[in-house]
């Protein structure tokens, strides 16, 4: 096969790296789906990223077939992606709520319709390089959607200030995968492979930065509580002074003495009144 020719060493090397890393990307959500099976609940996760990833894999597989040449590694990784994403969606449908199932089935129907329109429409209306170019740019658009799909999870992370729904491993694999496929596209001189992976790299870096910022919410809360306690302590010390306490004690003693004097004076007055009555 021409792909393994010595004249294309960089294509083979970067394509192989892309396959290995992208396999990691596809398996990164596996712990999540194992947890879904254990709990028998989707736990608030959405199926949109997996549906969009399935659409992307289907269209890239079609693109690799019609382009031919050095596309064996594109065919291999997207075939694997179709199988794995389909399994994820099946598991999701098994444990999703009725509303989530309905939305997922709608999404899958849309994916199938779009694939048919692209494949049949370009097959009958376009030929040769023009057909490859049109399908390639459609794939670029879908790939941008794939990279943008995790933004729904990013919004959830910002809203809840928790990275529970955004595993770090997935962000790392996405960044490395985008880097490898960018290099593969450059070596192959295929702009349709190169362009979307620039965006993928930037979004991957952004997600890892977000993870680093929100990874220890408990620690931040503890620091905040400690800061509040320190402020309260300082406030209490500013309002309670030893001098004020001495003055309060002295005032209390004065009040006590005054009370005793009043009591003594009141007793004498009673006697005088009694005497006056007697007289």
List the topology elements:
Elements: H1 9-27, H2 30-39, H3 48-67, H4 72-95, H5 98-125, H6 128-148, H7 151-160, H8 168-188, H9 191-214, H10 217-239, H11 242-278
Helix pairs in contact: 1-4, 1-8, 2-4, 3-4, 3-5, 3-6, 5-6, 6-9, 8-9
Please provide a written account of the structure.
By secondary structure, the protein is mainly alpha-helical. It contains eleven helices and no strands. Helix 1 (9-27) runs parallel beside helix 4. It is globular, with a radius of gyration of 37 Å. It starts with 8 loop residues before the first helix and ends with a helix.
Strand proportion: under 5%
Give the C-alpha Rg: 37 Å
Q: Number of helix segments?
A: 11
Please give the alpha-carbon distance between the first and last residues: 141 Å
Helix content: over 70%
Largest sheet: none
What coarse outline follows from CA principal-axis ratios?
globular
Structural class: mainly alpha
Helix/strand order, N-terminal first: HHHHHHHHHHH
Question: Segments where pLDDT lies below 50 for 5+ residues?
Answer: 1-6, 219-245, 262-279
Q: How confident overall, as mean pLDDT?
A: 77
How many DSSP-defined strands? 0
